[in-house]
Design brief:
Length: about 775
């Protein structure tokens, strides 16, 4: 049977709301037969440890107070989650257990491991009951019935048999962290013990995968809480994960990985707070690029040890319930120990260990082969420059193919310095994967231009085209699509496309940065932007739908992108390749205030108004504009004024205004009823459009005016004016003197009041638009390197 194991840590279960979220994840991500391993809720283990300390110090009042704390927390969870009989029984059982703890404490019979085990037992029981109440089959299992250790060693054969009780018809909610010994006593599995329980159970059940649901979104290049630019990796190979763990990185514990050795069990680290976001997969060697990591060490002691015995580091780690790193340098063996535990280790090694340095802080650098030495030297130089005294700096080979460096210093360094180190040591290792959606007029031209442009981009950062998407098919090649024969590859290898497979393909990309370039004109495609953001993709849009979506959706997208440090560029959605967005932003950055924006924002309507003199029917020109690649796929999007309305909204939002499309008044450049029906039925009624435009032209000519489709945003008056409409303008006005197809943006601001700033040039066409998208790609790439 293909089962999976899911593990939820304490922070994932800290409140009733979190239990509810976890239950939803289980219902949507797990199948009957899967095991769900849980830690103690929130800070329960810490509270139990506090209870143990009070008990040891014979502090009876303290003991009772902590029992009360535990009770309040559990009662709150039970009362908020369970109802009726389930609630009553659960409260009764909890009461009995807490009374027993109080009695045992009084009688001086408390046992530490047995006491600590309560946290996991309560979580598993409550979660199973809550799932049952939600009408899903679930049962709680005590891992002491599944995991047996004898003489400190796991009894694999017996455990494998015991795990057969896990039921294929239900969710099996199993306590993490605990096991039993041959005398039936409780033993705990140490720090991150629940992660270890999960991988052990996965091995014993021959599960397909283990998902560690946690409060971070995956494994990052460095701590994302300290360095905003930290990169989340889609894939990390087990050897590097193991090394990181041994250097004390808290995301995965070295022990967690051991049961997976020589198995094909997939290990995934995923956020239980954002279950749709991209995760990190820990893969077997060769299935992921070697990555760069920086991990920090706080307050460690360095101890020299004589004759390290095989397996002793593991034993010592078990003893202090903490990771220990050991290394050989100049034929001596050293241990790096969290300072709080040094005395325990030194005592344990009775006479074989000497303290060499105390209170060290440091940096671990995990990186691909052959560069650890160089990066370690570089890190040391940077730290020295910032007056950090270095005690040790060396690099080592770890397992084949793996290297690391350690820089141990006298002082701690702050997040600013870590950010600098990250920028200097990690940034160079990044690659950008490009996925292009839409290979029509503009998209195909963009790809043609990309071959040359890649040379330029590669000076900044290695950039690869890895995906192409059209309305029905897609092509993904994670090593890169060969641009000169993309069409051939498309014809032989493109596969059917649906949203789910597209998201899965994005998730699989093993790149530090990814960008989806939307050159479709599809609203449906734009609705996937939040999913792209969840996959850590930057966005570039020529498509105007997302930029003009309803404010609530639009703001939520912006917020999501901001939280993930993702960029969204959409320069070509207004004015094709013209730098209108740049100009508006630049004016604002430099303290200017835009008061009025007026112009012709449609290449199609500009071309039509300039070319139409009544000698040929208007609709014939419209078909020509379509052939030239100026119009939207359905040119009525242009004629209706909707396309211009969208552009005005995009610029208004750029100026910080909170507007929606309906706040911009619109007068179409065609009879309203022509908007109905499909394109062919429109063509049958094109005479109506011709007559409509002929009338407008005759009227304009009579008054010696010319026709222009004009957009205006005026912030000068009390009431904001935002409108798009066909207007007749005087021949000496800037809007009249356009070349066919040109856009013009007339900007009045504090600094450009009487003499407006004017931006004018081609406002549509595949070449200029594709070039504008390249500008967005260039600036995105540029922003990623520093
Ligand atoms: N033309 C111009 O001058 C300018 C255009 N733009 C914008 O650029 C975009 C593209 O314009 P243009 O190239 O002229 O349009 P086209 O109609 O020529 O091409 C559209 C492309 O999008 C693909 N597509 C449509 N729906 C989907 C979908 N749901 N998922 C994936 N792909 C899809 C189509 O696939 P298939 O090939 O299978 O049909 C096609 O390849 C539009 O948003 C437009 O507003 C912006 C500035 C100027
Ligand atoms: N159809 C549009 C294309 C660019 O956005 C136009 O004509 O301006």
């Amino acid at each position: 049977m293909n089962t999976a194991v899911h593990k939820f840590g304490g922070s994932s279960l800290s409140s009733a709301a979190r239990y509810h979220a976890v239950a939803n994840i289980i219902i949507s991500h797990c199948q009957a037969g899967d095991s769900v391993v849980v830690s103690a809720a929130g800070k329960t283990t810490n509270t139990l440890v506090k209870l143990w300390l009070c008990y040891q110090q014979n502090d009876s009042q303290g003991t009772l107070d902590v029992i009360k704390l535990l009770k309040n927390h559990q009662v709150e969870l039970i009362s908020e989650l369970l109802i009726d009989e389930l609630q009553e029984t659960a409260l009764q059982k909890l009461n009995d257990e807490l009374e027993l703890i109080a009695t045992l404490a009084q009688q001086q019979e408390l046992v530490e491991a047995q006491l600590l085990a309560h946290g996991e037992v309560w979580s598993a029981r409550l979660l199973a009951q809550y799932l049952t109440q939600l009408e899903h089959k679930a049962n709680a299992f005590d891992a002491r019935d599944l995991l047996l250790l004898s003489g400190g060693q796991l009894q694999h054969e017996k455990n494998q048999k015991s795990c057969q009780v896990l039921n294929s018809e239900q969710f099996n909610v199993v306590t993490g962290f605990i096991a039993k010994n041959e005398s039936g006593e409780t033993v705990t599995l140490g720090r991150n013990g629940s992660d270890y329980s999960a991988t052990l159970i996965a091995r014993y059940c021959n599960a397909q995968s283990v998902t560690i649901w946690t409060d971070t979104q995956g494994v990052y290049s460095t701590d994302p809480r300290k360095v905003k630019q930290a990169i989340k990796y889609a894939k990390v190979c087990r050897e590097q994960a193991n090394l990181l763990a041994r250097l004390g990185n808290p995301v995965l514990h070295a022990k967690t990985l051991t049961p997976l050795k020589d198995t094909n069990i997939k290990l995934v680290v995923r956020s239980s707070f954002d279950s749709h976001s991209a995760c990190t997969e820990i893969v077997k060697k060769g299935n992921a690029k070697q990555k760069h990591f920086l991990t920090t060490l706080d307050n460690h002691d360095l101890v020299k040890i004589e004759q390290l015995i095989e397996g002793e580091v593991g034993e010592l780690s078990q003893l202090i319930q903490h990771t220990l790193h050991h290394f050989e340098l100049d034929s001596e063996t050293y241990l790096l120990i969290p300072a709080a535990y040094t005395h325990i280790v030194i005592n344990h090694l009775s006479g074989r260990a000497n303290l060499v340095e105390s209170n060290l802080f440091g940096l671990g650098i995990v990186c691909p082969n052959d560069i650890a030495h160089q990066l370690t030297q570089q890190a040391a130089k940077i730290l020295q420059k910032y007056n950090i005294n270095i005690r040790f700096a060396f690099s080592q080979k770890d397992m084949p193919g793996n290297e690391y460096g350690l820089v141990l210093c006298e002082q701690a360094f702050d997040t600013d310095l870590l950010t600098i180190l990250h920028e200097e040591l990690i940034s160079d290792s990044q690659e950008l994967a490009v996925v292009v959606a839409g290979l029509g007029n503009v998209g195909a031209t963009f790809i043609t231009q990309l071959e040359k442009q890649l040379v330029r981009l590669n000076y900044l950062l290695p950039v690869k085209l890895v995906g192409l998407v059209r309305s029905e098919n897609m092509l993904f090649c994670s090593d890169g699509i060969k641009i000169h024969n993309w069409l051939e590859q498309w014809q032989t290898s493109a596969i059917a496309y649906d949203n789910k497979s597209l998201i899965a393909a994005l998730e699989q990309l093993d790149y530090e940065h990814k960008v989806v370039i939307d050159i479709t004109a599809s609203e449906d495609f734009s609705l996937l932007y939040p999913d792209f953001a969840a996959q850590d993709c930057h966005l570039i849009s020529a498509n105007k739908y997302a930029g003009t979506a309803h404010t609530t959706w639009y703001n939520a997208l912006k917020e999501k992108l901001y939280e993930r440090n993702l960029k969204w560029r959409y320069n070509t959605s207004v004015g094709a390749g013209l730098p209108i967005n740049f100009a508006l932003n630049d004016l604002q950055y430099s303290g200017d205030k835009i008061e009025r924006l007026l112009g012709v924002f449609s290449g199609t309507l500009s071309w039509l108004c300039c070319e139409y003199d009544g000698s040929v029917p208007f609709s014939e020109l419209l078909l020509k504009a379509k052939d030239m690649g100026y119009t939207e796929p359905d040119p009525r999007e242009d004629l209706s004024g909707r396309d211009v309305q969208r552009k005005l909204l995009i610029l208004a939002r750029e100026l910080g205004l909170t507007l929606d499309l309906d706040d911009i008044s619109l007068t179409p450049m065609m009879p309203a009823d022509l908007a109905q029906g499909d394109w062919l039925s429109f063509l049958e009624k094109r005479d109506k459009l011709d007559a409509f435009m002929s009338d407008k032209l005759i009227q304009a000519k009579k008054e010696d005016l010319v026709l222009r489709y004009v957009a205006e945003l005026n912030l000068q008056q009390d009431k904001l004016v935002a409108k798009v409409a066909l207007s007749a303008v005087k021949k000496d006005e800037p809007l009249a003197g356009l070349k066919a197809g040109d856009n013009i943006f007339v900007i009045n601001s504090l600094w450009y009041q009487d003499n407006a700033l004017v931006i004018q040039g081609p406002g549509a066409g595949q070449e200029v638009t594709a070039a504008g998208i390249h500008s967005d790609l260039y600036w995105l790439t540029h922003s990623l390197i520093k």
